[in-house]
TrEMBL record:
GO terms under cellular component: plasma membrane
SUPFAM superfamilies in the record: Multidrug efflux transporter AcrB transmembrane domain
Cellular localization per UniProt: Cell membrane
Name of the molecule in the record: SSD domain-containing protein
Membrane topology: Multi-pass membrane protein
UniProt KW keywords: Cell membrane, Membrane, Transmembrane, Transmembrane helix
Predominant subcellular localization, coarse grouping: membrane
Source organism per UniProt: Tepidibacillus decaturensis
Domain of life: Bacteria
TM regions (residue ranges): 166-185, 264-288, 300-318, 516-543, 563-586, 607-629, 641-664
SSD domain residues: 195-317
Organism lineage string: Bacteria, Bacillati, Bacillota, Bacilli, Bacillales
Gene3D superfamilies: Multidrug efflux transporter AcrB transmembrane domain
Annotated InterPro entries: MMPL_dom, Mycobact_MmpL, SSD
């Protein structure tokens, strides 16, 4: 503790490069960018991006404009830096030619009622910085009766919305946590010191990716700070409570040394379970799991380091003011709850087992939303514009069949006919749609050839009859993939509908993987920490019930769950709230040294209930602000599930878990090293009521 001033100064100095890194870390707004590279759809998309300039594609519908006005708008957009090309009917036919003389397929492709549609191809991916600025420039050009939609404008608007809301997320989290800590800690200064310490660790964590050349998904960027604050808040509460206890009869430096020694093991064990839960997402095939998992695991480590170094240093420096500014603590007594739970533990144990039935039913039947468009804010102009466009051009969902030159003309024509005859496919547009194969290549307009054929590749546009997430579209995609299997490595089916379909399958496969890894990892950590085979099963079983209820509750509420909640909630809730169960069981074990099991649990609940309540409310308070203030439904739904999960875990640990531990006491004692023997004499002679009377 002699180096406290150095620790404070050094920690503050490191904040400045971390802030620079935080501001410069690239944020990725494209979920599809996290699909595994070995998927044929991703490989095909890469070919479309590099060869045909389909890095990002937007659609523009113009109403009540003459063809000349539309052509002028097209030329202006083509001059915008970052735009590869703008496809419209003038690329295939002369405007002076009456529409009646043009092929019907060609007219229907670009005209409907009083509207016409063009396609804007950008030079880079939809989420790139260059496309972001290009979209902004295009919007300046557009006038009334023009509707701009597609992935590039959607991601641009999503980015602008998130950037405008980020400050509110931080401010709400800090505000709610300050109120909570102000009520539950005996000094108004300590909450500020805790927030400062964890705040510094959050800045370190979010600034780190820049210095290792990494990016971050917008989901991670939005929730990582709040989640890190909520998950690691209880570590600092453990330390502060122990310091206050030791400070009553020791000098401040000695009291802090003892507090660190006595809480370090508990903090490290708790942080290890949190890290294990987050790292369980890293092996996911969907890269967003690795992004969120590594960021949060790293954040927990940073928080632990600063809670054991910076926070003690700050407390010692401000100890005089901390002692002066004291106030009563507003935490309810857990005496009544402890009485009910310990008296009725056999009934509660049966309830615990029965609750798995509705929890599992809800989990199995809850509707999971994988459609990215459905998870976007309805307030975005691009989403509103897409709804307008679909009224005139219902077939805005499309896919691409991209193939190399090893396929013969006859193979291509056969594939096109087979795809067109499939249910769920409206039309297949290709080079052959506008040019008769019998006509020599030199007589075909160059712009038509370059539109569909470049380098060694040629593609077809497959227009879907139904939406991306419609079951009939999924079946059509599966049929096409089965049909082109003989040409594997030479032909690829890609596009948003296909990527959306692969996202669904990838997440569904990842869920089982994440659940298994997180459960096994936490089981091993608890087994080693508590030297038990029984306790890991009991504690993880309790938290898994809370997780099942959290994920399945939306089924009973008539709500849907975002796909990220299907894998992230299990890992986050298990890693974050298992600490509460560990705190209860360690105190229970301590009380068993001198008391019967019922008395021991009664005292354990009374003693640890306040800390468990504070920790769960801290996680709730840290993320609930995002749910309240965010316009981004994906973030709202995810943070609501995290906040709700903290409360459900709190209820399970304080009400159900004690009953399980009491009922399975014999099982626990036989499979746990060093577990105290039950004091049978005291159990027969004393009751919970007699303890209250003695007090």
């Amino acid at each position: 503790m002699k180096s406290k001033l150095f620790i404070i100064l050094f920690s503050i100095i490191l904040v400045f490069p971390a802030l620079i890194g935080m501001m410069r870390t690239p944020i990725n707004y494209d979920i599809f960018a996290y699909l595994p590279e070995n998927l044929p759809s991703v490989q095909g998309q890469n070919i479309m991006n590099k060869t045909f300039g389909y890095g990002g594609t937007g659609i523009l519908m113009v109403k009540n404009k003459t063809d000349v006005e539309v052509e002028n708008l097209k030329e202006k957009i083509e001059k915008v830096d970052g735009v590869e090309t703008v496809n419209w009917i003038t690329d295939l036919a002369d405007l002076t030619l009456p529409r009646e003389f043009l092929p019907e397929d060609l007219v229907n492709q670009f005209y409907a009622n009083d509207s016409t549609m063009m396609q804007i191809q950008f030079q880079q991916e939809a989420a790139s910085e260059k496309t972001y600025h290009s979209v902004q420039e295009i919007k300046k050009i557009l006038g009334p009766n023009v509707y701009f939609a597609g992935t590039p404008p959607m991601l641009t608007e999503l980015r602008q919305l998130l950037e405008s809301e980020m400050f509110v997320y931080s401010a709400s989290g800090i505000g709610f946590i300050l109120v909570l800590l102000g009520l539950t800690l005996p000094s108004f200064i300590i909450p500020i010191l805790i927030l400062f310490s964890i705040g510094v660790s959050i800045i370190y964590n979010l600034g780190f990716p820049y210095y290792v050349g990494s990016s971050m998904s917008y989901i991670t960027a939005a929730i990582a700070g709040a989640l890190q604050l909520g998950v690691t808040m209880d570590f600092s509460i453990f330390l502060v409570h122990r310091y206050e206890e030791e400070r009553k009869n020791k000098e401040k430096n000695e009291a802090m040394i003892v507090a660190i020694k006595r809480t370090a093991l508990a903090i490290l064990t708790s942080s290890a379970t949190a890290v294990a839960g987050f790292l369980a997402m890293v092996p996911m095939a969907l890269g967003i799991g690795q992004d969120l998992g590594i960021t949060m695991a790293r954040g927990v480590i940073f928080s632990v380091l600063l809670i054991l170094t910076l926070l003690p240093s700050l407390i010692l420096v401000f100890d005089k003011w901390i002692q002066k500014v004291q106030h009563p603590v507003f935490i309810p007594s857990f005496q009544r709850l402890a009485q009910v739970v310990t008296r009725k533990y056999k009934v509660i144990f049966v309830v615990f087992l029965l609750l798995f039935i509705p929890a599992v039913i809800g989990l199995k039947n809850v509707n999971v939303i994988y459609d990215i468009d459905q998870l976007m804010p309805k307030s975005l102009d691009s989403i509103k514009n897409l709804d307008v466009i679909k009224k005139d051009f219902p077939s805005t969902d499309s896919a691409f069949l991209v193939m190399d030159q090893t396929l013969s003309d006859q193979d291509r024509i056969t594939i096109k006919k087979q795809v067109e005859n499939m249910d769920g496919i409206k039309k297949v547009i290709s080079y052959d749609t506008f040019a008769d194969p019998t006509i020599p290549s030199e007589f075909i307009p160059e712009n038509l050839k370059t539109m569909f054929m470049r380098d060694n590749y040629i593609y077809m546009l497959v227009q879907m009859e139904y939406g991306s997430y419609d079951e009939r579209t999924t079946q059509a995609i599966q049929q096409i993939n089965n049909m082109i299997k003989p040409y594997e490595g030479h032909i690829y089916l890609t596009g948003q509908s296909v990527l959306q379909n692969d996202l669904t399958k990838t997440v569904q496969d990842d869920i089982k993987k994440v659940d298994l890894i997180s459960i096994v990892a936490v089981l091993l950590i608890i087994a080693l920490a508590l030297r038990s085979i029984a306790l890991p099963v009991i504690l993880v079983g309790g938290i898994e019930l809370a997780i099942y209820f959290n994920q399945g509750l939306d089924f009973y509420l008539g709500r849907s769950m975002p796909f990220i909640g299907s894998f992230a909630i299990g890992a986050i809730q298990l890693g974050s709230t298992i600490n509460y169960a560990i705190l209860l069981v360690t105190r229970y074990k301590e009380e068993l040294e001198n008391l019967s099991k019922v008395e021991a649990m009664y005292r354990a609940l009374k003693a640890s209930g306040k800390a468990i309540l504070s920790s769960a409310l801290a996680l709730f308070a840290a993320v609930i602000g995002i749910y309240i203030f965010s316009d981004i439904s994906l973030l709202r739904d995810l943070t609501f599930m995290i906040a709700r999960g903290a409360i459900i875990s709190l209820a399970v640990i304080l009400i159900l878990l004690p009953a399980v531990l009491l009922t399975l006491e014999t099982f626990t004692s036989k499979l746990t090293l060093g577990w105290p023997k039950i004091k049978m004499e005291k159990q027969q002679k004393r009751t919970v009521e007699s303890i209250d009377l003695a007090k």
